[in-house]
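Example (one chain per record):
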Amino acid sequence: MRHSYTLFILALLAILPLASCRDNFDISSVKSEPKLILYCMPTAGDTTAIRLLRSLPVNRQGQVVPIDGAHISYSVNGRPATIIAEGGGHYKAVAKQSAGDRISIEAEADGLPAVSAQTTILDAVPLSDVATKEVTVYSDYWEDSENYLQLTASFTDPSNTKDYYAVQVKSLLFWTNYGGNCDLPGPDDIIVDTTATVCTVYTESDPVLRKLNSIDYDFGYDNNAYENFYVFTDDGFNGKTYTLHLNLNRNVAPAGWHYVSPYYYVELYHITPEFYHFVNTIGSIDNSDLAKAGLSNITPNVGNVRGGIGMAAGYASAKSKVVQHVYEE
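Predicted structure:
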C-alpha cells in the first residue's frame, strides 16, 4: 500500500520544522473534573438498557469506572418507567414504548453533576430481500482488484424528512449438540442455538458508504466503521428507493457438489441525528492516522447528554431474510 509510505514522508516533513522547538506544557495543570457518562439507545419494546460510568479527567490517572447506586428517572411521553439496577453500572428501564414516543432520561450519582437527555423512537424502514453475486472490484486501499461476495438490498427513504441510517451485515453462527459452533452445520448436527456475528463490509461498490479515494488513503485516512456499524444519510436519494451494495470477503465451504457461503442477513438501522453524529465522530477519530500522530486536529466528541458525556439516542431496525450464496463452479 503506497499510502503508508506517503504518510511517513508527510509526517517527516511536518516534524522537521519543529525539531528545535520545545513545549513544557504540564497536563496536570489542566482544570478538569469528572462527569457522568450516560449511554442509552431506546427502541420499540418494553426494556431499555442504560449504562452509567464516571469519566476520567485528563489531569488524573486511573480508569473510567462504572457507577452503581445512581438515581435515574426515565419517562416515555411523560410516563415514568420502572428502573432496575443490575450492577456494574448497568441499569434497565421497563416501560412499553413504540415508534414516535418521546424519551426523557435524567441521572445523578456520586456527587457528580446531574445529566439529562431526550430522544425519539423512530419508525423502522423495511428492507427488500437480499440478492447475492460474485464480483471483482478495484480497491483504492489495496491498489489491486479484489474478489468479493456482494449482497444487495433496497429500501425506500421517507420523502418528508432528512433521515440518518446505519447498516450491518451479520452471519449466523450455529451451536450444536457437540458443544461447538460452526457457520454450516452438518446433516447429523442438532442445532441448539443460533447467534450472529457482524461482518466487515468493503464499501468500494456503494456510493453512500464509499467516502474515501486513493488520495485520502495517501494522507493517512481510513474508511473503517466503528464496530462495523456503517452510518450514512439520505443525501442524494431523499424520498427515493436506494439499493445498498455490500461487499464481503468470500467465505467458502463445501456442501455436496457445490461450494456455499455462510448464512447472511442485512440489518438496516433508522437512527436519530444524535446517534449518527456520535458514531460518525468516533469513526473520524479512529480513521485519521495524522490526528493520532498529533499532526492534525482531532474532532471533539459529539454527544447530546447535557451536563455530562455520552449519548441517548433512539433508533429502529429492520432485518432482511436470511440468504445463502451458492458459488459458481
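Caption: Residues 212-223, 287-296 have pLDDT under 50 and may be disordered.
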